[in-house]
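Handout, page 2. Input:
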Amino acid sequence: MSFSDFVSVLVAGLDILVHLDAKGEIRIHIPIGSLETTEARRVWLAGISFSEYCSNVSDIDAYAHRLRPVIDGGWICGLAAISARLGNPADFMSVQTVGGLATSVHGRDSSRFVGYLDFKPNSAKREPSNIPLARPETLRAWATEQIDLLTGSSPLEWCAVTCSLCDLGLDPLNIAHALIVVDRKPLPLPLKEVLGVARLRGLAIVKSGIMEHVETYNTEVAFGTYPTFRPVRNSKFLSLERADGVPKDETSFIGCLARYAAKEQSRLLFREERNVARTQFWGPVHALILTVEDALEPS
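Output:
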């Protein structure tokens, strides 16, 4: 990687022309607002993704046509596409910025979005928070267009999009999918079908022994004979925090499922079975069993 490659990522979100004078002047960045064609956006994405050194060209082509500006109050707060990628690939295809300048050139992945998004700073040191700079209504409008552009995606890709929306502080309820293992077969299902499975047979979630979170290092495909929730990647969507039997995060898997159940005049019940297995790194894990209780008909 050359110094000019490094600087081009550092200034990825600036809406100005940037030249580098090192053994002859070269242009390394054009104003982000001038990237109006898919081809111009593809070239920009290839540059910040180090595609000259990585085998991610096909991924860049797949995402370039969905890159859209995030504009709030006349300010460009991003040029991004929602991620439909499984896992947490270290593919350099996203840049998190503060004031248009990258907070890190290395250690970047596309688990939430592809392209760049500006985030609010945590301090004067420009440490990024997890809160996008764009107002929630602006980010929701961008996400709505992304969902329209994703029409025809596979159910498994919708599982990843669900996580991406949750991680960006957006509500995935209307498109939420989850990967459920039923009789040893992995099935990516919309929430309506997940609720149907839970109502008929119950639903197991393998829970970390050290925090209120789905265990991501578990190698068991399913827990007993229960249909079992399986994460497609680490995400806020995996939060299992509850207060008085109610999920704390309504955009998490259990939060979304509880809200969908409420729409169906039902509620989720939670029961925990402890020390059902062990992981190599974190010791014992537990099983959270979900069942569905239908509301009584009014007399």
